[in-house]
Specification:
The complex is a heterodimer of chains A (308) and B (307). Chain A is built from twelve helices and no strands. Chain A is mostly helical. Chain A has two domains: 35 residues, no CATH class; 253 residues, MetI-like (MetI-like fold), CATH 1.10.3720.10. The longest helix of chain A is centred in the first third of the chain and has 34 residues. Chain A starts with a helix and ends in an 8-residue tail after the last helix. The model of chain A has no long low-confidence stretch (mean pLDDT 86). By secondary structure, chain B is mainly alpha-helical. Chain B has two domains: 40 residues, no CATH class; 215 residues, MetI-like (MetI-like fold), CATH 1.10.3720.10. In chain B, helix 10 crosses helix 14. The two termini of chain B are 40 Å apart. In chain B, 43% of the residues are buried. Classes of the chains: A mainly alpha (308), B mainly alpha (307). Chains A and B meet through helix 1, helix 3, helix 4, helix 5 and helix 6 of A and helix 1, helix 2, helix 4, helix 5 and helix 6 of B. Chain B: Belongs to the binding-protein-dependent transport system permease family. Chain B: It is a multi-pass membrane protein. Chain B: This is Transmembrane protein. Chain B: It holds the Pfam family BPD_transp_1.
Chain lengths: 308, 307
């Protein structure tokens, strides 16, 4: 297999690697470099300013707000989404009634129907989902307040996205809505591969369902849960939160920056305020937060691998 | 015996409708009863979430057939008649047809490019030993965990300097580049699982490396290409951040971008029913594709996470 090997390798790698280096790797390296300059992005001239941008960032009240919100996203979103998904997946796969002569553990009737429906939002663009819910949250004519009025809660008519205390949570709920199904399907696949006799033995020993969940399902599923956690956290810090916050909240960034997140702040600084260098500085901070988050989850979640 | 405690922390959820209890059949042995109670409980909650998923979508479809005044006065009422004019207005006047065409061009080009270039790189990385192999591999998959936003600012100027800003082919190239990390990661693992004997036999018979790849390995890798293709198709079709930054020409807008712009400007024009029609129009193709190819879509999207 030696004949012409290297020519072939170079020929096959050149184009993909070239594109990747040009549009992904090179901008990454550049952006770290730019964070030490005073580049505006509008003119080609700039000079090195050392750590000035970083100092400015530490004094920037809006940066701290965006960091705080991003951290809430990274902690609360995976927690809620994955808990809900685990709960649903357990219901779907183990919550079934014992049918005469059937297996000890079985899924509820219509389990595949639930999986199909729950996955729906996952195939929709997050931008379109965000738009849809922006309408649904409308305080006067939106679907949600209208339901509240319909059930007699006329007095409870939140402003949702217009309320600085509520907006962030309203936005987050949309991400939960759109992501839970993916994890339900993912965890279901994991649960399906857990041998039924483990459950059988536990139930014979008198364990109830919630014990089996914590003692059997969760430990055996732990690897999947953990990688799901990292995946969701990266999404919550990055692209997904950008779309929902930018599209749904007024401003954008919410009343009094109450929903602004780091990605959105990077975008605004670079493309609205003409402060490209400062934007990349916040971008570097975002990178640090993302890597720290992933490392923390991997470390906290480390436990002995269980085989079955 | 309490059996309905939730196994995981569940945030504020409407309680299950427990009005109608499905009484346990026959002699109520303890475990049997437990199963039955849990069953009612789980069905209740599962149904509630299913409704929560479907309701907003149904609401959007319903609203897209209503006239503006009833959208505002009674959001949940049924349309007085089916206003198909909303749909035709959205398609022609609100440029939905252009956004569709742009999206199809961009996604078609990037999808083909991603699969061809991704499988070429993955094949070489999976099956050939050469200095730098590991380095290039990790360089590629490192891109999966970095926030795109960080690169976006310099990327804008790279694309601008190349004269590719606001062009369809520029967008295609960038989409391909950002799809490569996952594609290479996934396909490298896939090519490693394919038997090497077939390729070796072909090579001994005098086929060149590239001929072996295109005529033997690529057809063998079809299941992997389909999975990763679906993943990329949905990701690229639904992409919002990259076009928002790199594509500011109103004529070149893709679907997601066009709709958001439309929503912003519609605040002044006030054609909400047309906007809803556009929204539903944009949702329908993917929902329809999902329902038809449901199994493949789920496999494609979860394939990476399960490995």
């Amino acid at each position: 297999m030696q004949h012409g090997k290297y020519r072939f390798i170079v020929g096959f790698l050149a184009l993909p690697l070239g594109l990747y280096a040009l549009f992904v790797v090179w901008p990454f390296i550049q952006s770290i470099y730019y964070s030490f300059t005073d580049w505006t992005g509008l003119s080609p001239e700039f000079k090195m300013v050392g750590l000035d941008n970083y100092r400015r960032m530490l004094d920037d009240e809006i940066f701290w707000k965006s960091l705080q919100h991003s951290l809430i996203f990274a902690v609360v979103l995976p927690l809620v989404t994955i808990s809900l998904a685990l709960f649903f997946a357990f219901m779907i796969n183990v919550g079934g009634r014992r049918r005469r002569g059937g297996p000890v553990i079985s899924g509820v009737r219509g389990s595949s129907f639930y999986k199909i429906v729950y996955f729906f939002p996952q195939v929709l663009s997050i931008a379109i989902v965000a738009l849809l819910f922006a309408f649904a949250y409308n305080p006067d004519s939106g679907a949600i307040n209208s339901i509240l009025r319909g059930v007699g809660l006329d007095s409870v008519q939140p402003l949702w996205l217009g309320d600085p205390d509520l907006a962030l949570w309203a936005v987050m709920a949309v991400l939960v809505w759109s992501t839970v199904g993916f994890f339900v399907v993912l965890f279901s696949a994991g649960m399906a591969s857990i041998p039924a006799d483990l459950y059988e033995a536990a139930l014979l020993d008198g364990a109830n369902r919630s014990t089996t969940f914590f003692r059997i399902t969760l430990p055996l599923l732990w690897d999947t849960v953990q990688s799901g956690w990292v995946y969701m956290g990266i999404l919550a810090l990055g692209a997904e939160s950008f779309a929902v916050v930018q599209i749904m909240t007024t401003g954008p960034g919410g009343p009094d920056y109450s929903t602004t997140v780091m990605v959105l702040y990077v975008y605004q600084k670079a493309f609205r305020d003409g402060q490209a260098a400062y934007a990349t500085t916040i971008g570097v901070a975002l990178l640090v937060v993302t890597l720290a988050f992933a490392a923390l989850v991997m470390r906290l979640g480390r436990r002995e691998r269980l085989e079955f | 015996m309490k059996t309905t405690e939730t196994p995981a922390p569940v945030p504020a959820q409407p309680g299950p409708p427990v009005a109608k209890t499905d009484a346990p059949h026959g002699p109520s042995r303890k475990e049997k009863q437990e199963g039955a109670v849990l069953n009612v409980f789980s069905h209740g909650i599962l149904v509630v979430w299913a409704i929560l998923v479907v309701l907003p979508l149904l609401w959007a479809v319903m609203t897209s057939f209503k006239d503006d005044s009833s959208i505002f006065s009674s959001p949940w009422s049924l349309p007085d008649k089916l206003h198909f004019d909303n749909w035709s207005r959205a398609w022609t006047q609100a440029n939905m047809s252009d956004y569709f065409l742009n999206t199809i061009l961009v996604v078609g080009g990037s999808l083909i490019g991603t699969l061809v270039l991704g499988s070429m790189a993955a094949y070489v990385l999976a099956r050939f030993d050469f200095p730098g192999n590991r380095f290039i591999y990790y360089l590629f998959i490192g891109g999966m965990s970095f926030p795109i936003m960080l690169a976006l600012v310099p990327l804008f100027y790279v694309v601008n300097n190349m004269g590719l800003l606001n062009t369809i082919h520029g967008l295609i190239l960038v989409y391909i580049a950002y799809s490569l990390p996952f594609t290479v990661f996934f396909l490298t693992a896939f090519f490693r699982t394919l038997p090497s004997s077939v390729a070796e036999a072909a090579f001994v018979d005098g086929a060149s490396h590239s001929r072996t790849f295109f005529q033997i390995m690529l057809p063998m890798a079809k299941p992997g290409l389909i999975s990763v293709g679906i993943f990329n198709f949905l990701g690229q079709w639904n992409q919002y951040m990259l076009p928002t930054v790199l594509n500011t020409d109103p004529d070149k807008r893709v679907l997601t971008q066009g709709l958001v712009q439309l929503a912003v400007s519609q605040g002044y024009k006030g054609d909400w029913s047309g906007l809803f029609a556009g929204l539903v129009m944009a949702m329908l193709p993917v929902l329809a594709a999902y329902i038809v190819f449901q199994r493949q879509v789920v496999q494609g999207l979860t394939a990476g996470a399960l490995k």
